[in-house]
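Budget justification note: compute hours in this period were largely spent on complex prediction jobs such as the one shown. Inputs:
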Amino acid sequence: MKGISHFISGVAAATFVSSAVDLANYEHSIIITLGGLFGILPDTLDFKFAKFFQKFDYEVDPHPENMNPQKIAETIAKCINEAYKEEREVNLMLHTVKLSADLFRQYSLYFDNENREVVVRIGPVVNMSKLPYPGTEYEGDTVGRAKLDCEVLHSYDSETYVDIFGGPDFGFEKKGDKVEAHFIPWHRKWSHSLTLGVFFGLLGWLIGLIFGSPHAGLYGFVMGMGFCVHVLEDQLGFMGSNLFWPFTKKRANGIHWMRSGDAWPNFTTVWLSLLIILFNLNRFNPPQNQAFNMSWVEFFGYTFFVPLTIMLIIQKTFQTIYAKDESSDEDFEEQLVAEQNKESKMENEETIG
Amino acid sequence: MEAILQNISFMISTYSMPLLYLLVGTLASAFLSCLPALHIYNVAGFLIILWAKVNGFTTPENFLGLVTGLVVGYSIVNTVPSIFLGAPDEAAMFMVMPGQKYLMQGRGFEAAVMTGIGGLGAAFAMLLLAPILPTIVAVVRKVLQPHMGWILATIVVYIIMSEFPKGGDRGTVWEKFRDGWKSIVAGLFTLFLSGFLGFIMIYKPLVPIEFAFQNIMPAFVGLYAVPWVIMNIVSRGNIPKQHIADSTNMNWELITRGTGAGMLGGMFAAIFPIVTGGIGGLFAGHATAQRDERLFVMSQGVSKFAYYVGAFFLLFIPGSGLTRGGMAWMISSFYKPYGVEPYFRMLGFIAISAGLAFILLLVLSKLTIKFIQIYDYRLVSWITLIFITVIVLSITQIPGLIIMTVCAAIGLIPVVFHSRRMNCMGILLIPITCNMLGFGPAIASFLGLI
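Corresponding output:
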C-alpha cells in the first residue's frame, strides 16, 4: 500500500482509543498523530535506511545507447545458476536507464519456467507515469534469452519492469530443487514485524515513564498499534512480511488481494480511514457536541458503501463504453486491412493478367 | 403567464447588475491573472479599500458579483503564467512540474486546457454536491473543529515522513546513503527554515501596518514564483515551438477520475485552515495512486478551483458561518449572507463565470504562446522578474522586497536539490500548528520574538 494509506490507517486506528481522543481534544496532545507516524515507519525504515545497506553480487547497468538484452539475460541467469549451484543467496541489482530528467528506457525480465530461460525485453521510452512514447521502440536487438539450470519460484510478478526512479533488485536463494526469487529482499525483512511493533510500543511507554507522563502506557499502545496496522495491511498484498522477526527469518507470503500501487485499494483505505476518524471523533464527543447520531451500520452504509457502489458502477460503465469503442475501432481497422488486401489482390491479379 | 413574466422581470431587475459585475470581474481577472505574481487577493484587497473609501461605489450584491468573477477567473486563468512563464502561486506549485514538462515538449497549450477542464469539472462537481454540501460541511466542522491542532500536526508529520530518497542506487553504502538523503535533508531544511521565517512574520511583521493584509504575499512570491523564474533565466534551454492541439487526448473516465481526486484534495484544502490547494492536491494524488500525467495535471486544476472558489463558497453555505481563504475573510467584513438565496445565487455565478473563464483561458493561452515565441524566453523571464519585483515593491515597499529576497533564497533550495517545493509551506504550517497546539508563544519567546 502507498504511504498515505498506511499513515491514515495508523491515525484511524488511534481514534478507536477513547482516552487518546480525549487527550488530543482536551490537552492538545499529538498522540493520534503518533499513530500515523508509526503507521508509516516500517516503510521509512526500509526505504530511508535498509535500502542503502544492501550489498549486491551483480549489478546490471545498461548503457542507454547500447542496450544489450542478451548480456542482461546472461547476467541474470548467472546469478540464478550461481545461487543454485553454490547454495547461497546471490543478490542482483537492475539499474534503470535514465535518458533525461523524466524519461527512461524501459526493459523487463521474465522467468520462463517452461523453457527454463530468463527472457529480457527492451521496451519503449516511458515517462514518469510509466506511459510509453509512441515510436520510441529500441532499434537494436530487443530480446535476450539465457538458459537456467533450474526453475525459478517467484511470489511477486513473473514479469518485472525496470523503468522509473531506482531499479528493482532481487535476492536469489536455493529452495529444494528450485531457486526462489525474492523481490527487493531488503524490504519487509525485519522492519515489518509485529514483534518490532510491540518493541516500539514498550519503548514509547518507557520514554513516557522517563518524562513522567501519566499516559505513558497509552502513548506506547498507540505507537505499537500504528506500526502493527501497517504490517497487517501489507499482508493483504503479494510480498508479505517477516511477521515475527527476529524469531522468524523469512517473509510470510501475502494473501494476494491487491498490489501496493493499485488505485482502488489505496483510495478505499484512505476513504474508509477518514470516515472512521470522523465517526470515532464524533462518538467520543460529549452528547451535546455530537454532530450526528447514527449507528455504525447506517453511517458506513451511507458514507462508504453507497458512494463506493456508485463509483464502481461508473467505472464499469466507462470500461464497457471504452471496450466497445476499442472493439469498434478494431473492427474498422480489420475492415480497412481487409479492403486494402482485397484491393492489392485485385491489383496483383490485374498485373498478372 | 403574467406571473411568469413578472418573475422573469423581477429576476432581470434583481440579477442583471450583479451579473454584469460578475462578467466584468471575470474579464478583469482573466487579464490580471496572466501577470505573474499578481495574486487576485491583492487586487481584491485594494478594491475593498477603494470601495470603503468612496463610500460604496456600488451595492454589496454587485460588489460580490465583481469579486466572485475575480476569484473564479483567477482560479482558472492563472494557469497561464504557471505553465508559460514559470511563475506559480502557492496552490499551483505541483502543477508546475508536469506543466513545464508539457511546455518543454511543445504541449503547453494542452496542459493549460487540461487544467481549465479541471476547473470546469470542479464547478460541475460543486453544482452536483450543492444539495448535500451544507450537511457535510456542518458535520465535518462540528466534529473536527476542536481537533484542528493535532490534525495540522498530522499534516506536517505526513509532509516530513512522505518524502522518500531520490537516487542512492550506486556506489558504496555511504555514497548511496549520502546521495539518497540529499533531497530529504534539503526538504527538511526548507521546511524548518520557512517555518522559522513564518514565526518571524507572525510575531514581528516586517510589512508596514497599513499593508498588513498583504503580509504573506511577498513571501509566497519569493518562495514559489521567483526561484522558478531565476531557473528559467540561468538555464540554457529554449522552449520548443508550441503546438496548438485540437484534442487533449482525455476521455470521460479520466475527466471523472481527475475531478473526483481533485475535489477530494481541493475541498480538504478549502475546509482546513492554512492547507493550500497544492497540499490538498498532493494528498489526493497519493490517495488515489495517480500515475497518469494527464490525470495529475487535470486534477491539479480541479484542486486549485475547489481550493480558491470552494473556500470562498463555504461562506455562503446556509448556517455554516465558515470563513476560509483570504477572499472570504475580506468579504465577511462587510457582507453576511443569510438563507439559501445567496447560496444558490453564488452557485449560478460560479457556473457562469467558470464557463467564461475557460473560453478566456483558451484565448489568452494562445496569445501568451505567441508572445513567448516572438521574444527570447530568457528575456521574457527577465521581464517577469522585473514585473514581480515592481509589484512587490509597490504593494509592500522595501520590507516586502526584503522578505521576497529571503524567501527566494529558501525557495531555491528545493529547486536546486530536487526536493519537494511543498516544504516551503512550512512558513504557515509550522507556526500556526505550533500556535494551535499551544506552544507557539513558548517557541516565539525562545527565539526572542516576544
